[in-house]
Amino acid sequence: MKKCVCACLLLMFVAGLSLGVSAKETIIYYLWDDPTYQNIVNTFNASQDEVFVDAKVIPAKDYESKIMTLLAGGTEMDAYMNKRATDIFPMVDNGYAEPLDDLIAAHQFDMGPLAGYKEAITIDGQVYALPFRGEAYFTYFNKKVFEQAGVPTPDTYVEKGEWTWAKFAEVAKQLASGDGKVYGAIMYIWGSSQVMPADQRGISYITADGEIDIDDSLVHSFKLRKELEQVKAIIPLAELKATKTHYSKAFWDGNSGMLLIGAWFPGMMLTAKNEGSLQGFTWEDWGLTRLPCDEPEYRTTGLPTSNVLHADSQKKDAAFKFLSWMSGPEGAKVVMQNGFMPAMFSPEVKEVAAATLPDEKSLHYYTEDTVHVTGWYNKYGSKVEAELVKVLEEYLMSDMTDNQLMDTIRAHFEEIINTTM
C-alpha cells in the first residue's frame, strides 16, 4: 500500500511538471517596520501562485540610512520601498534603481490612474518608481476637544471657504488651555511640517537647476509656528524633540484639538482603535478635512510613497509583478484596507475607504480630487528639508527680523547648492 501511495504521488508530481506547474519564484523585498505593510505583502503572497515576496524589515527610524548602506554594500535584493521620495536621485546616480519603462510596456501596466504622480516618479523622462501610496496632508481633529471649547470643527470653516492659515491660528488659540494641558494643534518636527503655506504657494526652495526660489510665504510659515508656540497653542518643537513625543501618541492622548499630518494617519488610527490606545475619545470622535490654505484654488502637499526595482536584481519580471500589483487596482484596495491612501482611487477603492474613515465628510475630503504640490522633488530636496529644521530651531530661539530670516535661509540654501554634486 505504501509503495502504491508513493508511486501515485510521484506520478502526480511528474504530471504537474508536464503541465507547467512549478514553485513560486521568490523575490527579496526591503521595507520598514509598519505592520500594515506586512499585511499588504501577505495578501499578495496569498493572491497568486507565481511570486513569493520574502519581506526584509528595517526599523522605520533608521530606514533611510540603512537602505542606502545595504544598496551601497551590494546586499542581495530585488525591490525595496523608498521612504523619502527625493532619495531616488542618489539611487539613480549610483545605479541602484532600474528604469521601469520597458517593463511597464512589456507587462502592459496601465499608468493612467497614476498620472497625477508622474512628476514625482520620473527623472529625465524615465520612470524609476511605482507609487503605491498616494499623499495629501489633512487637518485631523478631535470632536470632543472642539465640543468642550464650544468651537466649530474645521470642516465647518472649509464649507464656508474660511479655512485659511489665519483661521487655523485663531481656532488653535481658542482650543488651547494656555497651561500646556490642552493644545490647539500639533505641527510635527519635520521640515515639511513647518512650511505647508509655502508649499501651497508653489515655491521650489531650490530649483532643479540650482537656483534659489523662495518668497515671503516661507517667512509667514516660520512666523506662524513661533506665534502659536509663544501662546502655547501648539506643542513646542523643542519639547517634541526633547521628549521624543510622536505625533500619534500626542493625538491619541486626547489633549490636542488638531493634527496636521499626512494621508497615512487613518491607518494609525485603526491600529490605535484595535489596540485600545485612544484615550478619552472613541473612533466616532475624530474626523479629517482639508489643510488650511490661503491660495485661490485649494491645494494640499505631499509626495507619494513608491517602490523601486533594484538594478542588480536577477528576477526583474517577478519583482515587477509584485510592484505593479501593489500599485494597481487590486493592491490599491488592500492599501486602503490598511488605512493608507492608495496612489489611485476607483469606485471599489472608495467603498473600502468608507470602512476605514469615521464619517461621510471625512470620506469626501479624503477622496476628493485636489492639486498636490511639493517644491523639492529634485536632487536638493532631502537636504532642503533638513536645513529648514535647522533654520527654524535657530529662528525660534532668537529675535530674527524677517530680512534676517530670509538671509539665513539663503545662506543655508547656497551651502546646499555648493555642496551637492
TrEMBL record:
Looking up InterPro entries in the UniProt record yields:
Bact_solute-bd_prot1, SBP
What start and end residues bound the annotated signal peptide? 1-23
Q: What Pfam families does the database record attribute to this sequence? A: SBP_bac_8 (PF13416)
Question: Keyword Signal on this protein?
Answer: yes
Which regions span the lipid bilayer? none
Q: Which UniProt keywords apply?
A: Signal
Q: Which domain of life is it from?
A: Bacteria
Q: Which PANTHER family does the protein's record reference? A: ARABINOSE-BINDING PROTEIN-RELATED, DIACETYLCHITOBIOSE BINDING PROTEIN DASA
What name appears for this protein in its UniProt entry? Extracellular solute-binding protein family 1
The record lists the organism as Vecturithrix granuli
What lineage is this protein's organism placed in? Bacteria, Candidatus Moduliflexota, Candidatus Vecturitrichia, Candidatus Vecturitrichales, Candidatus Vecturitrichaceae
